[in-house]
Amino acid sequence: MRYRVSRSQSLSAVAQAFLLLLALLTGASVYAEKAVDESEINERVQQLDRTIERAGLLQSELDVAIPADKTALEYRLDETSIEALRLIDQISVGMAQLPEGNITRNALMERFSGGLLGLETALFERLENLNKRIQDAESIFIESSGTDRVASQAFSFNLRTLRVRYYGALVDVIHSREALALGVDDLERVVGQRLRQEAERSVARVELAAAAFAEVNRRLSAGTGNADLSSALSQLKINRDFHLSILSALVDQMDRLDLNVASYRTVIVRESNIVSVGLFEQGVLSQMLTEGWANLRDAIVKGAPDTILQLLIFVIILLVFRLISRVTKRGVEAALERSNTKMSALLKDILISGVGGTIMIFGIMVALSQIGITLGPMLAGLGVAGFIVGFALQDTLGNFASGAMILIYRPYDVDDFVEVNGAAGLVKKMNLVSTTIVTFDNQTLVIPNSKIWGDVIKNVTHQRVRRVDMEFGISYGDDIEHAERVLKEVLDEHDLILPKPEPLIVVNSLGDSSVNIAVRPWVRTEDYWKVYWALTKQVKMRFDKEGISIPFPQRDVHHYSEDKNKYTGERV
User: Which of 190, 44, 32, 11 is nearest to 96 (CA)?
Assistant: First the structure.
C-alpha cells in the first residue's frame, strides 16, 4: 500500500511503521553504552503524539482551505512533518538502546502493532508535492515585479531550503534502517541519485549566477555603471550565495552517504573565495590545482600575443614620456638660468623636478590605460591611501609645510652662511623636507625644515656688504692720536675696504690694562674674512714698527714699609 498526502492518517501510519520496525529488532541494546532514560523516551512519544495530532488538523484544514491559505498551510504541514521525523529518529535511538523485554519497549510494540508501511514512500510523495510548489513559486517570481518579486523569491528560497531538509530526513531513514540491519540498497541508490541531481542543478545555478555577476561587475568597472547595473549586481550576489548554501547543505548529506563530493566542494571553495577545511579534503585541493593550471595554460596560450603587445606598448609609452620629461627639464633649467627673475635654488629645483614629474605621471596614466587598467578606482584608492599616509606622516608633512614657507619667504639660499638651530655653516643643499649645512670644519649637518622655521634664522651673508668689527688695545703710555693715524693709514692702504660708508676709528673703552680703540671698516660680504685676517696682521706689524705697544693684562703692586722703635713704639 502507498501513502497519499491527502489522508490525515498518513503521518500517524508512518510513525507506527517506523516504531514497529524498531521494536522487532532483537539485541538492540548492543548500541547502548549506559542505561537509557525511559522517561525521556516517553516524553518524546508524547511530543510525537501532539505533532501527529497537529499534522492531522493541518491536513483537515488543507482539504477545505481557500487557495489563498493553501500555500501557508502546506508550508506549516511540511515543518510539522519534519519535526515529527526528527522525533521519530530520536525515539528510534532510544528504542535501540533499551534491552529486550523492557516494559517501555513492549508497550511501544503493543501500541504500534499496525502493519508495515513504507516510510520512504510518504517522504517521496511529500517531496513531489514540494517540487510542484517550488515550480509554482518560481513561475510567480518570473511574472512579478517590485516588492512582489522580492517576496516570491524569498518564498522560493524557503521552499528550496525545506527540500534539502527533506533529503536530510531521507538520509536519517537510511541510517536508521542500517542500524536495524534492514535492506537500504534501493533506498540509498534512489536518494543518492536525487542528491546528485539536485547538486548538479545547484552547481549550474551557482556558476550561471557567478558568470553573470562577473560580467555585470566588469561593466561597472568599465565606467558604464548605473542604478540598474548596481541593483542587478546585488541580486546576482544574493542568488549565488543562496545556491552556494544549498549546494553546501546537499554536500553534507551526500557526505553522510559516503558519496564522492570532491567536485562539488571544489565549486564551493572556488566560488566563495574562502579558504576552508574542505579545501584540504581528499581530491578537492588536487582538483582545484588541476583546474587552475589548465585555466592558466589556456590563458597563456590564447592571450600571450596580446599580452606581449600590450606590455611592449606600455614600455614604449614610458620610454617616450621619460625622454620628453628629460628634454622638458633641461629646457626649463636653461630658461631659468637665462631669466632675470631672482628666485632661490630651492624654487628652481622644485620647478624643474615638478615639471618632469608631472610629465612622467601623465605618461604612467596613459600607459596604464593602454593595457586596460581603469584609472578611476585607482585614483579613488590613492585618495584614501593619501589620507592614511598623511595621518601617519604628520611630522614629515610639517617639514613640507616649513619647506614651503622657506621657499616663499626665502630667508636663505644655497651658499649662504647661516646660523640656525644652534648650527652654523654654509647651506649646500635645500629641499622641501630638510636643509643640508656644511660647517667650516667640513661637517655635514642635515636639519629638518620644521626645526629651522620654528627657530631664529641668522643669515650672515644675505646682505651685499658687511661691517668688520675689530678692536685694538694700546697701553696707557702710548699716544692715542698717533695710534689712530696709524690705524687710518692701514685701512687706507687696503684695497678691499670700501670708501663708502667711511670706516670708523674711535676710542671705545678704557680697559684694565689698555686703551681700546674700535675699528669699523665696511667690505663686501664675500671679502669679510680676508679683510679681518689681513687687518689683524697688518695692525700688529705697524704697531711694532711705530713703537706702539699692545699691552697684555698686568697688575701694578705698590709695597709700603714702616720702621718702629721696639721699646717706645714710635716711628723712626
Answer: 32
Contact between residue 530 and residue 460 where contact means Cβ atoms under 8 Å apart: no
Q: How many helices (H) and strands (E) does the chain have?
A: 16, 10
Contact 345, 436 (CB under 8 A): no
- CA angle 547-551-556, nearest 5°? 120
pTM, rounded to two decimals: 0.44
For helices 38-64 and 67-97, angle between their N-to-C axes, nearest 10 degrees: 160
The Cα–Cα gap between 542 and 472 comes to 12
**In whole angstroms, what is the distance from residue 13 CA to residue 19 CA?**
10
What SS3 class is residue 281? coil
End-to-end CA distance of the chain: give it in Å, rounded: 167
User: How does DSSP classify residue 571?
Assistant: B
- 42-79 pLDDT, tens per residue? 787 788 788 888 878 888 888 888 877 887 888 888 88
Residue 401's identity, in one-letter code, is: A
Residue given cell 614604449 in the structure block: 316
Place of cell 661637517: 443
Query: Does 417 score more than 80 pLDDT?
Result: yes
Question: What's the CA gap between 356 and 350, in Å, rounded?
Answer: 10
Inter-residue contact 359 to 328 (CB < 8 Å): yes
Place of cell 546528485: 196
